[in-house]
Amino acid sequence: MTARVWAALEAVRERIWFTAAIYAVIGIAVALVARFAAPYLPQGAAIELGSGAVDSVLTILASSMLTVTTFSLGTVISAFFGAASNVTPRATGLLAADGTSQRVLSTFLGAFIFSLVGIIGLQSGLYDERSRFVLFVATVALVVLIVIAMLRWIGHLNRFGLRDDTHGRIEAAAAQALAERIEAPFLGGRPADGPPPAGARPVLAEAVGYVRRVDIAGLDALAARAGAAVQLAASPGGFVHLRAPLAFVWQAGEPEEEKLAPAAFDARLRECFIVEPTRAFAHDPRFGLVVMSETMEKALSPAINDTGTVVDMLGRAVRVLSRLAERGRAEIEHPRVAVPPLSTADLIDDVFGGVARTGAAGFAVHVRLQKALAALAGLEGAGFGPPARAVSAAALAAATPHLAPADRAAVAALAERVAATG
In the chain, fewer beta carbons within 10 Å around the N or the C end? Predict the structure, then answer.
C-alpha cells in the first residue's frame, strides 16, 4: 500500500468512533440475524421459556446502556482534560487511542443499539416465537459481555488518565517510534554519506506542516523508472514549508521507462510524502522526546512545581534513549533513496535541553539531569557522548547563578563526571 493509504488507515484506527461504529454494526446485525436463524432451531419448551422475558430485558438494557455510555464518555473526556492540564495537551491523543476505553465504550454503545433494534423488531412483529428465543439467547450473551466490560472498565478507571498512566503512555509511544527507527535506521534506504551532489535538484514542498510518513518504496520505484537517485531532505517529523525541499534528485543511470517530465516527476515524488498540520508519535521518534521535555517543563512551572514528575520523566527518557545502544546493521532494501541518520545531538537536546534551562534553580532537578546525562554518555555504540557533555555544560552554566555554593559544587562534580565519561 502507498504511504497515503497507510496514513489514512492509522488515523481511522485510532479514532473512538471507528471502533464504536464496528460494534454498532455488529449489534444491528445480531438483532437482525435472530430473525433468520429461527428456522434452524428445534421446536421445544426452551423456546417458550425465553420468549416471554426478552421484552423486559431489552427495555432495561436500552435505558441503562444509554446512561452508562453517556457517563463513561464523560469520564473519558474528563481524563483528556486532566492530561492536557496536568501533563501536556499532546498526551490527549494517546488517551484517545486507548484500546480498552474504545472497546468498553463500543460495547456499551453496541448493546444499546442492539437493544433498540430488538425492541423495534418486537413491536413491529418481526420475530416469531422461535426468533424471540434466539433474540433472548443473544441478549443473555450480551449481558455477560456487558458485565465483563464493566469489570474491566472499573479496573481501568483506577489508573486511566492519571499522571503515572499518562507518563507511561508517552514513554511507550516514544519507545515504539524509536524502536521502529532502530530496526530500520534509514527507513529501508541507504545511508546518506553527506550532502547531495552539487548538481542535485531540490523538489520543494507544496504544503506547510510536518512530514508524517514517507513512502520509501514508492520513491525508489519512481527513481528507478527515471534513472535517478533521491536523498531525503525531510524525514518523518520534519517541518516543511513552501520554500523547503522535500528531497534532492539527481541523475544516476539510464531510465527504465520513458523519462518523465520534471513537473510530473516532482508531482509523483510529493505524493510519497504525507504532510499534516501537526506532528504525531507514530514514525517520529523525536516527537515523543519533545513531549517528554514539555511534560518536565510544565511540571517545573510555578503553578505546578512538581519536581517528582521531572525526576520520573528523566528516568523514562534514559530508558527510551538507551535502546539506541542496541542498533544493528541496517538492511538496504531501496538503494536509490538516501536517508540521513537520526542525529543524537538532536535527540539529546529534544528531551534534555528544555529542562536544563527551565530547571535552573532546582538543585534536585540538576542532580538527576547530570546523572541521566552521565548514564547516556557512557553507553557504548549509541554516540551520546559529545551531545550529552554539551548539554551537561550548558545546564551547569544555567544553574550556577541560582544555586547555593554547596549545591553548586555538587552539581559541578556531577558535570565533571559527565565530561570524563565516554
Answer: N
